[in-house]
Specification:
By secondary structure, the protein is of the alpha/beta class. It has three domains: 85 residues, NAD(P)-binding Rossmann-like Domain (Rossmann fold, 3-Layer(aba) Sandwich), CATH 3.40.50.720; 160 residues, Rossmann fold; 89 residues, Erythronate-4-phosphate dehydrogenase, dimerisation domain (Ribosomal Protein S8, Chain: A, domain 1), CATH 3.30.1370. Helices cover 38% and strands 14% of the residues. The strands form three sheets. A six-stranded parallel beta sheet has the order 7-6-8-9-10-11, sandwiched between helices. A five-stranded parallel beta sheet has the order 2-1-3-4-5. β4, α4 and β5 form a beta-alpha-beta unit. The termini are far apart. Bound molecules: nicotinamide-adenine-dinucleotide and 4-phospho-D-erythronate. Nicotinamide-adenine-dinucleotide (NAD) binds next to α5, α6 and α7. It holds the Pfam family 2-Hacid_dh_C.
């Protein structure tokens, strides 16, 4: 068996190596020639998988180690009898970690805290649903908009998008890219909706860049400059709009889902899917792939407000400001496209909040359920600190 895989998918050698010959390539170099004699293709979101790619190949299986599937023409695969799998939910926790890190950062810059705001979650699936749960558990008022779910489950618990825009001062967009149809999300945030945002609104997009009209957002930011934009995904990646990028408060290169845990979970999901489809034994457990985190314990005692304690724990695991700064540096040095892609290549080291156990001293014991709600593991046994020694 010949397996062609994007070189930036971790865990491929362990999971797939013994099934055949592996060829690792940069995602943007995977073309029809590269897959001509391949049986299996493993991609990320940057490889367009369409009829032109697969037509002259002997491919029998394509797996994308991503949640999003908008880069894959599944009809073309089905019509050629090529099996397909994606990795729903694989990096949803990581995206929520990044959203929390981003919102806490903007709150700090503006001298406010998140419980003074109402958050609207648009697209309440694996990512948005987890975000809603974590924010609600932290006592933050949230509204949800998800017309397909409202249609299937009933309107209770959901509002329409324009109501959400009118009532929320933080809006988090987590929809897939759906080009057309009843629930189309292409430019879901168009000129009219971006203009309708109240001054001081924070608008975050971690779904797909094309769900938001970047030109309209740039107009609002340039003319009025009265809203705060947080973008992880962009139109025309990697050649993103420099003028927009310069006006975005937290600008990251489509890395919200980039935790090592999420990436390895994706690889393992595709490995499992291929084994199931082809009736092969599964010899590798997910736990085998994940190394212990570099930072596994953090000891916290009194002296901090709950929000300060949360911010400290969040930044110990994932400080979104570093990704913002890295992108700025890379784009200045290498130009937008190469800088953007460069930040998305290579080893991912970031871990998820749950890999950090927060050990709470007596003066911080009250924070146990608060930090657990944010996603951390908690160790509650009382710690005797020097400070408490009489
Ligand atoms: N930035 C990143 O790194 C990153 C990481 C993971 C996923 N994503 C993107 O986020 C998207 C969502 O991920 P997910 O795992 O939650 O997917 P999901 O399929 O579990 O959930 C998507 C939700 O959006 C809803 N939806 C569909 N059309 C809608 C509309 N018109 N208005 C409002 N809601 C609508 C669906 O009903 C569903 O509940 C993915 O498709 C992917 O494109 C980005
Ligand atoms: O859809 C997804 O899973 C995410 O957008 C994913 O994080 C994209 O990352 P990449 O394709 O670069 O691995």
């Amino acid at each position: 068996m010949h397996i062609v895989a994007d070189r930036d998918i971790p865990g491929v050698d362990t999971c797939f190596g013994e099934w055949g010959r592996l060829t690792r390539l940069p995602g943007r170099e995977i073309d029809a020639r590269a897959v001509r004699d391949a049986d299996v293709l493993l991609t990320r979101s940057i490889t367009r998988v369409d009829d032109a790619l697969v037509a002259d190949s002997r491919l029998r299986f394509v797996g994308t180690c991503t949640i999003g599937t908008d880069h894959v023409d599944q009809t073309a695969l089905t019509s050629r009898g090529i099996g397909f799998a994606s990795a729903p939910g694989c990096n949803a926790e990581a995206v929520v970690d990044q959203v929390l890190s981003s919102l806490l950062t903007i709150a700090e810059r503006e001298g406010t805290e998140l419980d003074e705001r109402r958050v609207g979650v648009v697209g309440v699936g694996n990512v948005g649903g987890r975000l809603f749960q974590r924010l609600s558990a932290l006592g933050i008022d949230c509204l949800c908009c998800d017309p397909p779910r409202a249609q299937a489950e009933g309107d209770d618990g959901y509002v329409d998008l324009d109501t959400l825009i009118a009532l929320c001062d933080v809006i988090c967009l987590h929809t897939p890219l759906i080009p057309e149809g009843r629930y189309a999300t292409y430019h879901l945030f168009d000129d009219a909706r971006i203009e309708a945002l109240a001054p001081e609104t924070w608008l975050l997009n971690a779904g797909r860049g094309e769900c938001l009209d970047g030109d309209a957002l740039l107009r609002r930011l340039s003319r009025r400059g009265d809203i705060t934009a947080i973008l992880d995904v962009w139109e025309r990646e990697p050649d993103i709009d420099q003028a927009l990028w310069q006006r975005v408060a937290i600008a990251t290169p489509h890395v919200a889902g980039y935790s090592l845990d999420g990436k390895l979970r994706a690889t393992h999901m595709i490995y499992t899917a291929l084994a199931d489809q082809w009736g092969m034994p599964k010899c590798h457990a997910f736990e085998e792939l994940t190394p212990p985190p570099s930072l596994s314990r953090l000891v916290l005692d009194g002296g901090l407000t709950p929000w300060e304690a949360l911010r400290l724990c969040v930044r110990a695991v994932h400080d979104v400001r570093r990704d913002h700064d890295r992108l700025a540096l890379a784009c200045r040095k290498r130009g937008m496209g190469a800088g953007f892609d460069g930040c998305r290549a290579g080893k991912v080291r970031r871990r998820e909040f749950s890999t950090l156990t927060v050990e709470l001293g007596a003066d911080a014991a009250d924070y146990a359920s608060w930090l657990a709600a944010a996603g951390f593991s908690i160790h509650t046994s009382t710690i005797i600190t020097d400070r408490k020694t009489p």
